[in-house]
Specification:
The protein is α/β, with parallel strands linked by helices. It has 14 helices and 13 strands. The strands form three sheets. It has a seven-stranded mixed sheet, with helices on both faces. A four-stranded antiparallel sheet has the order 9-10-13-12. Strands 1-11 form a two-stranded parallel ribbon. It catalyses: L-histidinol phosphate + 2-oxoglutarate = 3-(imidazol-4-yl)-2-oxopropyl phosphate + L-glutamate.
């Protein structure tokens, strides 16, 4: 077989999927493991969302609503945006892909940070665009360097805010200053996947920037149902942007991109405020408790306003990750991100957090890290 594969496609390194939980348990001979590696919601989805999704199953022979009318209108009420300012995606990943499809051609540039969400750069590579990657400065987006890297070929800037994996936040003041350094032709994308965990007074008022764009670039925000709403498995995300940009993205969107159970589940999740607040409050309490416990063990927990945080374990993170696996606790080594002594953990339930601390203490002692 002879294939003529474009270089930009051949050079892509596939996204490395994690092993299924049951496979890890079989491989390591463990049971009842806990996963604190993917920033998922440990409390699970709202029972209302589960019920609503289940009730759609008898209608799977029908196509879903191609406009996601009811969900879009509910999101407009939830966020304060107008329905025409919202576009839904199969996860916020798909909205990222829409943006790259709509704005990037071969030779165009897209500015991102490192480390941050890997899929920004992969979508650009697929389009034949050029990734301009700016290293974080002290674990924060280097806004000055990003602004300086913009050229006449720059089409998009992606900023995950809060950043993943460092959990750092761009302030409202710094973002406003940053915008005024940029040409109006650039589109600035704020990926706010974890914004629900950020205190309201710390959040950037994206809607005002979208509706009053004079003298600044267009701003787009991305949101997801995967984190605070616990619907990672249904893959529902959305973007909020000027209606003219949303109209462009609808032109590159596949019809029926949000499936029937996903639309119903997400719509019901928005009505369960009690479950949503349980997640937000439980995350904040767990984050504070875990930070105290980790510090007491001799490690260095880093500040966070999300449902995860970094820990300097004072030794090789990958070795600790392996040791933790044998305890049935799955965390994420940050070695591949350029932080060889750091792990990232998701804040779990109270029982999961306690189990993590016990396993961490044992592994630190076994490895003689502290």
């Amino acid at each position: 077989m002879k294939l003529n594969i474009p270089k930009n496609i051949a050079d892509i390194i596939p996204y490395p999927p994690g092993k299924p939980l049951e496979e890890l348990e079989r491989e390591y001979g463990i049971k009842n493991s806990i996963k604190l590696a993917s920033n998922e919601n440990p409390w699970g989805p709202s029972p209302k969302a589960v019920m609503a999704a289940r009730e759609t199953l008898s209608g799977l022979h029908r196509y879903p609503d191609g406009s996601s009318y009811h969900l879009t209108n509910a999101l407009a009420e939830w966020t304060g945006a107008a329905p025409e300012e919202i576009i839904l995606g199969n996860g916020s990943n798909e909205v990222i892909e829409f943006l790259v499809k709509a704005f990037v051609r071969s030779g165009d540039e897209v500015v991102t940070s490192h480390p941050s969400f890997l899929m920004y750069q992969k979508f650009v590579q697929v389009r034949g665009g050029t990734n301009v990657v700016i290293p974080l400065r002290e674990m924060n987006h280097d806004l000055e360097a990003i602004a300086a890297a913009v050229t006449e070929r720059t089409k998009l800037i992606f900023l995950d805010n809060p950043n993943n994996p460092c959990a750092t936040l761009v302030s409202k003041e710094d973002f406003a200053t940053f915008l005024h350094k940029l040409p109006e032709e650039v589109v600035v994308v704020l990926d706010e996947a974890y914004i629900d965990f950020v205190e309201p007074e710390q959040r950037i008022d994206v809607l005002s920037l979208i509706r009053e764009p004079e003298g600044i670039p267009a701003v787009v925000t991305l949101r997801t149902f995967s984190k605070a709403f616990g619907l990672s498995g249904l893959r529902v995300g959305f973007g909020i942007m000027h209606a003219d940009i949303a109209s462009l993205l609808h032109r590159v969107r596949q019809p029926f991109n949000i499936n029937l159970p996903a639309q119903a589940g997400a719509l019901a999740a928005l009505t369960d405020i009690e479950h949503y607040e349980k997640t937000i409050n439980g995350t904040a309490a767990g984050r504070e408790w875990l930070s105290e416990q980790v510090h007491a063990l001799g490690c260095v927990p880093y500040p966070s306003c999300t449902n995860f945080f970094l820990i300097d374990v004072q030794g090789d993170a990958t070795a600790l990750y392996e040791a933790m696996l044998y305890k049935g606790v799955i965390v994420r080594s940050m070695k591949a991100y350029g932080y060889p002594n750091f792990i990232r953990i998701t804040i779990g339930t109270e029982a999961e957090n306690q189990r993590f601390v016990t396993a961490l203490q044992d592994c630190l002692q076994e490895l003689s890290y502290v």
